[in-house]
Amino acid sequence: MKKITLLVFSFLTIIGWSQSSNYRYHELQDLGSTIESAIAIECIQHYSPVGVREVNLKQNFKLEVGKIYKADLGLTYGNFGTRYYKVTYAHDSGVDMGDVVDTPPNFGAPITDLCNSLSRKFIRPILLGSTLQEAQNNFCSSLTVNSTRETVNIKIAKSLSSGDVCYMDFGKGANYYLIDGADVESGDADYEVDSTDNNSLFSLVAFNCQKPDLQAVSVDPETINDNYYRGSGIGKRAYYYIRNIGTNIENTNTLLTLYLTTSRNFITANDIKLASSGLEREYVNSGVISALSFSIPYNASIGKYYLTLKITNREDINTYNNIVSSVSRITIKDGTPPTTPIPTPTPTPAPIGKPDLIIDPNNTLAYSDDCFDCNPTLSENKKRHRINNQSGSLRFPIVSIKNIGTAMSSTTNLRFYVSSDATLDTSDIKYNGNPVSINAIKPEELFVLQGVTIFSTNFGNIGSTLNGNWNILMVVDDAKTNTELNENNNITAIPVTFYNPFAKTAQDKLESQESYSINIYNFDGQKVLTKEVKTKEEENKSLDSLKSGIYIIKSKDETRKVIK
């Protein structure tokens, strides 16, 4: 009788949970109790997560996998309190494991951009001067008052960058400082300053020295969470973006060097050089988005490293913004891949996961015909791109699709639409060019497309219908070939303004019939052709002898990118 009682009790327990539609099982990665610890764990991967909380939440909805929330779970043991959690798994019902939370926590809205959330971020300021004139004279002469690199944590949303100039008082009086080192996480600092406090003194300052100023904007591995084996000879690529925010370089070429570094945005003598490449001045002056190929040498120790890019040019006025590192680190493994397969851990619980495809705005770049002050990074651009509705284009040197779900996606595609709003419906105009293929993507990995260009003429006869403000929709998996965790995040809207160049009241400038010389460069910055031409049409026809790709044409009046 005793055995029967135990069996019935266990049976009832299992049935109770299997029918528990009032609960949702979640696995929450603990990122700590402060925003600074969450950034250090999630954005920089400086530390490992505190742990994983397995909880059955009494609520009728699931939290979105991959999102980060700030909440107090109300656990009765331990000293948890309010903490930051990343959702790594969510189930449709409760399960017989983990903690039971009967009072639904107030999760609120997820944190949309943790790395650029208001927090204490580390900077290394060097004194430029106590007055505006002194600071500008020193900055434009590549001088500083001293070489002391102060250590300061500044409370700010978007982190400062090396090479920035600030007017602030962090405890040593109001002065102008040049930032020589900055990070998204907080550090061991001697001083603190709050940029959001009205009683604090802080502002960014821009000096115009009328000299070239090269800036290393970003560098990232081609694939996140990829396998990097030392000594294997397996080729990898790092995508980079550099620009000139000063006047044009006149005489010298620019050297790009890629390193494997233990510190972020800093290079030491012990760091390992991976690759280098030279770029001619005409190419750099118009900005460069390209890639460096590399492999991990055998002398690299096993561990985690940043990819760090350094640019060098003798005419550059500000060398403090010439180094940039990848946001996260890559893991170097032994040179010989495992000969026996690593056993796949059995998930608990084990329902089938789903993919979740999005366009990663932080790693997607767009250029239009006539928006020279548009930031090419989708997540940072606040302006409308301008597109000639007769023959214009929108160019995407890099498009990154990320799978933030819990299972591998199947192959699908990327399509474009023109819409009056940010929602895809039957009234939107579909791009009549071929869709862009997207390979299967593992969870938490990126698939990177290169050289995607769409033309205004591929949306039909839009010269008379599309003028003014519209949106170009980038739609992943519009045919719904993947069953996703979230079917509502596949669309990215890019605000654009279509204009008709022939509607201008001013007369178009007549093209000169005198011969002039043009230089043509490939996407890697190498000169591939020099030719004498008389018209813009002859400039374009010069590409006929070249293979398909992205080229830069440098003529007497302009530098422009052309897709063949």
From TrEMBL:
Residues 334-353 are annotated as: Disordered. The keyword Hydrolase does not apply. This is Secretion system C-terminal sorting domain-containing protein. Residues 510-563 form the Secretion system C-terminal sorting domain. NCBIfam families: Por_Secre_tail. Pfam families: Por_Secre_tail (PF18962). Residues 338-352 have a biased composition (Pro residues). The lineage of its organism: Bacteria, Pseudomonadati, Bacteroidota, Flavobacteriia, Flavobacteriales. Keywords: Signal. It comes from Flavobacterium araucananum.
